[in-house]
Amino acid sequence: MVVSKIMLNVLSENGLHSTALKVATKQTPPSWGAWLQEGSTTCREAWVRTGAELGASLNHGYLCGGVVEWMYVQQHPFRVLPKPS
């Protein structure tokens, strides 16, 4: 789970943007999209809630930060331009 914070940006920065897009929009487990399909409104501690993970927390904003950051940086790269001299 922890690598999910940087995974999408690392893929895009290494020329694998289409792979990052597939990962970000996947809707079958394990994925952020599967969480949405299951009605989650926050990120979970584990990708799948089975067995030992049933008691896992369902509120981990940090773990979703990777996909949001990737969308902001890679999909809509707004940059602050330097002041003209």
In short:
This protein is mainly alpha-helical. The chain is built from 4 helices and no strands. The chain has helices spanning 4-13, 17-25, 32-37, 61-75.
Key features of this structure:
mainly alpha; 85 residues; 4 helices; 47% helix
Structure report:
This protein has 85 residues and is mainly α. It is built from four helices and no strands. It has helices at 4-13, 17-25, 32-37, 61-75. The longest helix has 15 residues, at 61-75. The radius of gyration is 15 Å and the shape is elongated. It starts with a helix and ends in a 10-residue tail after the last helix.
Question: Major sheet: size, sense and barrel closure?
Answer: none
The count of domains is 1
Strand content: under 5%
Uncertain runs: none
The run of helices and strands is HHHH
Distance between the termini: 45 Å
Computed CA radius of gyration, to the nearest angstrom:
15 Å
Instruction: Name the shape in a single word.
Output: elongated
Give the strand tally. 0
Q: Report the structural category.
A: mainly alpha
Bin the helical content: 40-55%
Mean pLDDT comes to 79
What's the number of helices?
4
Describe the SSE topology.
Blueprint: H1 4-13, H2 17-25, H3 32-37, H4 61-75
Helix pairs in contact: 1-2, 1-4
